[in-house]
Amino acid sequence: MSGKDTNTTNNNNKGKGKSTDSDKNVALSAARFEQELANAPADVQEKLRALLQQMALSAGDSSGSSSAGKAPKSMDEHKFWKTQPVVKHDEVVEDEGAIEQDIPHDQIRATPYPLPKEFEWSLIDVQDEKEVKELYELLTHNYVEDDDAMFRFDYSAEFLKWALLPPGWKKSWHIGVRVASNKKLVAFISGIPQDIRVHNSVKRMVEINFLCVHKKLRSKRLAPVMIKEVTRRTHLEGIFQAVYTAGVVLPKPMATCRYFHRSLNPKKLVETGFSHLGKGMTMARLIKMYKLNSATSTPGLRAMEDKDVPEVAVLMNKYMSTMELAPIFQEEDVRHWLISRPGVVWGYVVEDPESHKITDFFSFYALPSTVINNSLHSTLNAAYCFYYAVQTPDEELEKITDAEKKNKARKEAIRERLCRLMNDALILAVQNNFDVFNALNLLDNDLFTENLSFGPGDGYLHFYLYNWRCRDVNSDKVGLVML
Ligand code: MYA
Predict the structure, then answer these.
(1) For the chain, what is the total number of helices (H) and then of strands (E)?
(2) How far does the centroid of ligand 1 lie from the alpha carbon of residue 334, in Å?
(3) CA–CA separation, 317 vs 4, rounded Å?
(4) Is there a smaller number of Cβ atoms within 10 Å at the N or the C end of the chain?
(5) Which range marks the domain in which residue 270 is found?
(6) Is residue 369 a contact partner of residue 154, using CB atoms and an 8 Å limit?
(7) Predicted model pTM
(8) What is the 247 CA–ligand 1 centroid distance (Å)?
């Protein structure tokens, strides 16, 4: 939880459940642990917190689909995951690479996995307005909620089209499950293709997202069938690795990131229960504390245009080279992901006023949440920090041979510039009516979250690889942002 005056409640912790009484003991011991932790250096605190969360000791944690706060499942209790090519909870990774060999095409199962007889598979045509609306309805009522069932993700239909139709998208990876008798859409899972670098290996992978089972059909083991089906369909395309994120602990995270939140509309955040007025704090002071300038300050900042794509692609891939888990963007990916789309994503570049070169860029996307059972507000408008790159003094950095020293020097060299850019991102987010700006502590986000009054939330996001064994990655070396 935040040590600031406003304790922010995370609203996007994929897979969390409501706390139960038995959690409270866990929460108490976690609270004592937190007190002890407060004396440790900041980086040690962060690592221990992540570890604590992985061990499901942290207050309100729900680990690996066991209910909130219960002891994490042993490998043997993961009836499904123990059969899959993933790193085991207690495994020490020494060699990097595939866990299972690629399967020859003629040995891949040719027919879909059977579903219980009441259900049938149904590919969703995301380009069809009626079908994308059905998907929107399923997700808006059944997708990820916070622990206390106060907020639920409300991805817009336009957002879903953006997220599911990137370059190379495949309809066979937009997999729905319908009730056979009335054709109602009751479950979904999706994949999109992406080149991913993990440490030094580059692989074409599938990014799995939007796994959702209707609330009334939970705990019937539908999810494992859906995961097996998307795996089969991925194998058929010649891809054997996947990346995915979840709030729940499964075998086994290769990185864990924490959510940070920056209030933009503190009054609404308090009214919705997202934040709380701290002791001795007044609403007027809170509003003053989070007030931003009305205009941006970086000279040459403007909306990204199609003509900027080649330069942004170079900037993006150069910046990403400092990360240990990163997407590799071709120009067509940059065009798709980073140019503004109304109500979905905002992309900006900095054009040097003299040389007209693009020196930096940043982006954020809109992911509102439904505010459940609140008489004042029905939607929380959240912006999420997406990709960015900031200019670095390359010549100076090249002179430093020690990797650790170089990394430190790089961070110090970009801190001020990044803070200024992100302050502008916050101002643009206010201009676009967002209530809060969220960021994980991945990329170089820790360089600006503290300076720009972000508070740590209680949500963590775990990163997983399917059929790829690798060393763990620190949160500030995660360069992949999943929607
Ligand atoms: S993360 C977002 C997930 N969605 C939500 O949280 C929305 C709300 N919740 C639901 O809709 C349901 O609770 C879901 C589970 C659908 C999550 N990832 O059917 P069940 C395991 C992976 O009885 P249900 C996202 O979209 C659980 O440990 N596994 O459970 C990324 C247990 O297995 P085991 C999960 O609650 C998804 C089994 O499912 C998750 O009715 C990445 C229970 O099944 C989870 N988030 O449904 C998917 N939650 O017994 C993996 C629970 O072993 C992709 N479980 O513990 C892998 C790569 C595939 C491609 C490979 C290609 C090469």
Answers:
(1) 12, 16
(2) 30
(3) 35
(4) N
(5) 27-58+258-460
(6) yes
(7) 0.89
(8) 10
